[in-house]
TrEMBL record:
Keyword Hydrolase: yes
Protein's UniProt name: Amidohydrolase
Swiss-Prot/TrEMBL keywords: Hydrolase
Superkingdom: Bacteria
Coiled coil segments of this chain: none
Upper taxonomic lineage: Bacteria, Bacillati, Actinomycetota, Actinomycetes, Micromonosporales
Pfam family for this entry, one: Amidohydro_1
Native species: Salinispora tropica (strain ATCC BAA-916 / DSM 44818 / JCM 13857 / NBRC 105044 / CNB-440)
Length: 429
C-alpha cells in the first residue's frame, strides 16, 4: 500500500489511469473534510471489465480497495485475495459501477404536494427538512451526486455544506433560486428579475453566495400556472448580459428552455447547458435541425428530463411526449451531449429515487444501455463540472459506488435493484 500512496497518477493493473486534477473546480467554495477510511475488500466471483464509450462496470468482481476521501484519491486494485486483516464485503453476483449523478433535481419540491403553495408558505426549517429527506432517498437508490436546479432562499447551499461534512446524503451542487420574470416560471422561489440591471444584480448575488451554477428560465414552464412554455421570457440581449456576467464570475449557465426561440437564443449567447430542450412552438413540438447542429458544435450539454405518459397528465403535456423523445434521440445521433436526468419533485410521478428507473426508460428511447449508463455517470459528471473526479470507477476518483444485482449492460432494468451504495468510501446501503 505505501507504494500505491506515492502518486495518484500511478497506473493500477486492470484499470485505466484517469488522472484527476490537482483539486476540484471551485474547491475554494467547498468545506471539504479529509476523512480516511480503513481498507476493505468487495468480493464477488471473477473480475470482468465491461467498457463502452465512457461507462465502466465490473461484473462478478473481486477487488480490494483503499479509499481516501475528500481531495485524496481512490485506489482500487483487482486482486484474488485482499491483504490479511482487511474486512471483506461479499456482495455476491453483482455489478459494481460508479454512483449515479442526477444533474437536474428539485430537493425542495414535494412530489405529492402543491409545490407553489408549499414554497410560498412553508418556513425554512420545513423546506430544509424536506430536502434532507429527499436527498437521503436519492442516495439509497444509488444517486451519490445531485445537482439541485432550483430552491428557495439558498437552502441548497446549506445542504451542500452539511453533506460536505458527512456521508448521510449525496454530494449536492446548488443553483439556488432560478432567475425568472416577475410572475414567470417558478416565480415562487424568489428569483424574479426583469430588466438588465436586475438580471446582472441577480447573477452577482448568486456568485457572491457561492452557487455552483446559475440557472435562468429562458422560457416559460409547464408546472407554473399562467406560464407559457412555448414562449421566451427574456430577450437575446438580456440572456447575453446574464451569460457574460456569470462567466466573468466563473459560473456555468444553465438555461431552462422549452420554446424553440429560447433554445436558439441560449445557444447564441453561449450557455453551458440547456434543460429540457423541447423545441416547442405555438403549433406544437417541431425540431430545428440547424439549432441542433449548433448545440453539438458548441459542446452544450442538454439535460433530458425523462417524461413518460401517465394517467392523469394534462392533454397538452401528453401531446409533447412522443415528439420530445424523437427529438432527444435525434440530438444524440447528431453528437449532442444528452444527459439523462429526472426533474425529481415536480409531480407524483417524480419521486427523488426515480433516476434508476428513468435511465432504463431513457435507454429505450434514446440509445443503448451503455450510452444511457454513461449519461447518468461520466457524462452527467462532466455536465456538472465534476468529470475529473466523479462518474468513473478509476484511480483518483471519488469513492462513490453502486452495486446492482445482475448486469445493466445486458438488462438495464436491474438498475432499480441496488444491493449496496458507497458514498465517499462509506457504505450507506
Amino acid at each position: 500500500m505505501p507504494a500505491l500512496a506515492e502518486s495518484p497518477r500511478s497506473p493500477v493493473p486492470g484499470l485505466s489511469d484517469h488522472s484527476p486534477a490537482s483539486q476540484p473546480i471551485g474547491a475554494e467554495r467547498w468545506a471539504w473534510r479529509r476523512l480516511r477510511r480503513r481498507p476493505f475488500s468487495i468480493h464477488g466471483w471473477r473480475s470482468v471489465r465491461h467498457a463502452c464509450s465512457t461507462v465502466t462496470c465490473y461484473t462478478k468482481a473481486r477487488c480490494w480497495c483503499w479509499w481516501l476521501v475528500g481531495r485524496s484519491p481512490m485506489w482500487m486494485l483487482p486482486a484474488p485475495h485482499p491483504p490479511d486483516g482487511v474486512p471483506v464485503i461479499d456482495l455476491g453476483d453483482c455489478t459494481l459501477m460508479p454512483g449515479l449523478v442526477d444533474a437536474h433535481t428539485h430537493l425542495a419540491f414535494d412530489p405529492h404536494g402543491p409545490t407553489e403553495h408549499q414554497m410560498v408558505h412553508d418556513d425554512d426549517a420545513t423546506v430544509l427538512g424536506r430536502m434532507r429527506e429527499h436527498a437521503a432517498r436519492a442516495l439509497r437508490a444509488g444517486v451519490t451526486t445531485v445537482r439541485d436546479m432550483g430552491d428557495r432562499g439558498y437552502l441548497g447551499l446549506r445542504l451542500r455544506a452539511e453533506y460536505a461534512e458527512d456521508t448521510s446524503g449525496p454530494q449536492v451542487l446548488a443553483a439556488a433560486p432560478p432567475i425568472t420574470r416577475s410572475g414567470g416560471h417558478c416565480w415562487y422561489l424568489g428569483g424574479e428579475a426583469d430588466d438588465t440591471d436586475q438580471l446582472v444584480t441577480a447573477v452577482q448575488a448568486r456568485a457572491d453566495h457561492g452557487t455552483d451554477l446559475l440557472k435562468i428560465m429562458a422560457t416559460g414552464g409547464m408546472s407554473t400556472s399562467g406560464s407559457n412554455a412555448a414562449a421566451a421570457q427574456y430577450t437575446l440581449d438580456e440572456l447575453r448580459a446574464v451569460t457574460r456576467t456569470a462567466h466573468d464570475r466563473d459560473l456555468p449557465v444553465s438555461a431552462h428552455a422549452h420554446a424553440t426561440r429560447g433554445i436558439t437564443d441560449a445557444v447564441a449567447v453561449g450557455v453551458d447547458s440547456i434543460e429540457h430542450c423541447t423545441f416547442m412552438t405555438a403549433d406544437g413540438v417541431k425540431l430545428d435541425p440547424a439549432t441542433v447542429d449548433a448545440i453539438a458544435a458548441a459542446g452544450i450539454f442538454v439535460g433530458c428530463t425523462v417524461v413518460r405518459p401517465r394517467d392523469g397528465m394534462p392533454e397538452e403535456v401528453l401531446r409533447t411526449i412522443a415528439p420530445y423523445w424523437e427529438n432527444q434521440a435525434y440530438l444524440r445521433r447528431r453528437g449532442v451531449r444528452v444527459v439523462c436526468c429526472t426533474d425529481a419533485g415536480i409531480s407524483p410521478h417524480k419521486p427523488h429515487d426515480i433516476l434508476p428507473s428513468d435511465v432504463a426508460y431513457f435507454a429505450s428511447q434514446v440509445g443503448t444501455n451503455a450510452e444511457a449508463l454513461a449519461s447518468v455517470t461520466s457524462l452527467a459528471a462532466q455536465a456538472c463540472r465534476l468529470g475529473h473526479r466523479k462518474g468513473r470507477v478509476a484511480v483518483g476518483y471519488d469513492a462513490d459506488l453502486l452495486a446492482v444485482t445482475g448486469n445493466p449492460l445486458i438488462d438495464i432494468n436491474v438498475m432499480t435493484q441496488a444491493r449496496a451504495v458507497f458514498r465517499a468510501g462509506k457504505r450507506v446501503r
